[in-house]
Amino acid sequence: MVTVWDNLSAGRIERLAKWKGSESRFALEKEDLTNANLTIPRECETIYHLAANPEVRIGTESPSVHFEQNIVTTHNLLEAARKAANARTIVFASTSTVYGEPKKIPTPEDYGPMKPISTYGASKLASEALISAYASTYGLRAVIYRLANVIGPGSTHGVIYDFIQKLREDPSRLEILGDGTQTKSYLHVKDCVRALLAGLAEPDQRVSIFNVGSEDQVNVTKIAEIVCREMGLRDVKLSLRSVTKDGRGWVGDVKVMLLDVSALKRLGWKAEMNSEEAVVSAARQMVPSHH
Fold it and tell me: Is residue 150 a contact partner of residue 211, using CB atoms and an 8 Å limit?
């Protein structure tokens, strides 16, 4: 039985329509992790903690958002897990941004010291630390996944979503934030879901940490070209808008990211799509009117 807690601040209930009639296997409860009095159902053994405010840029204007929606929510959930009858395993969606700007690319899980450059990255690293401490103190098992940029048809933020919105407003030009050379790994949500299950197969370690991403990169200018093509637009004028002196898309933007995913590959997982294929697939799914 899968029970989903969601405050529906980013999700849409229609996305779950296909699960209607599966009440014996699936339940949705409108719940908010900012609630300090959470009670985890007795039958729950494994908790997937995917809730967070994922918009990295918002942390510059209002850093308290990431503190409240990422760190406080993690603490509330851990407290509930500690008091729960049967909750034994917590699976956490962390992020590549915990590494900050590592000197080693691809970056392995044991890289350090970790110096996040955004409050988002800091909030996720703080959450990892809390989870590790609770696992050791209260006998929970934790599996932490540091995710590359996860993309797919349900995206409500991020570079592909932003480009589509801009081009719907003005199909003749597209503004790219930064110098256009920002180069990162992108992961399709289907590959991500497979990864979130694969790490549970590791022999029983108290705290396991896995990087999750594709094994190559794509830059933001190429993403712009792909989105234009998938929307059926030709001769779009691409323009660059300088935001920081060193060409980032926003303050706190990590310009180059690629993760070493060999630990998870040893458990039999591998991304089926590379970065560019994932971008093409996500863009195509997000602009169905063209296809």
Answer: no
Interhelix angle 119-138/73-83, rounded to 10 degrees, is 10
Contact 25, 1 (CB under 8 A): yes
**Which residues make beta-bridge pairs with 143?**
91, 208
pLDDT in tens, 185-236: 999 999 999 999 999 987 778 999 999 999 999 999 999 999 999 999 999 9
The answer to whether the beta carbons of residues 184 and 256 sit under 8 Å apart is: yes
**DSSP per position, the chain:** -EEEEE--SS--GGGGGGGTT-TTTEEEEE--TT-TT----TT--EEEE--S---TTHHHH-THHHIIIIIIHHHHHHHHHHH-SS--EEEEEEEGGGG-S-SSSSBPTT--S---SSHHHHHHHHHHHHHHHHHHHHT-EEEEEEE-EEE-TT-SSSHHHHHHHHHHH-TTEEEEESSS--EE-EEEHHHHHHHHHHGGGS---SEEEEEE--SS-EEHHHHHHHHHHHTT--S-EEEEE--STT--SSTT--SB--B--HHHHTTT---SS-HHHHHHHHHHHH-TTT-
Token code pair at residue 165: 């919105």
Closest by Cα among 283, 184, 274 to 233: 283
Q: What tokens does 142 get? A: 């934790």
CB 174 within 8 A of CB 167: yes
Are the CB atoms for 282 and 188 separated by under 8 Å?
yes
Length of the chain: 291
Tokens 């920081």, residue located: 244
Fold of the 32-219+247-286 domain? Rossmann fold (3.40.50)
Considering only 21-25, 167-171, 265-269, which range has the smallest mean pLDDT?
21-25
The tokens describing 45, both together, are 């053994």
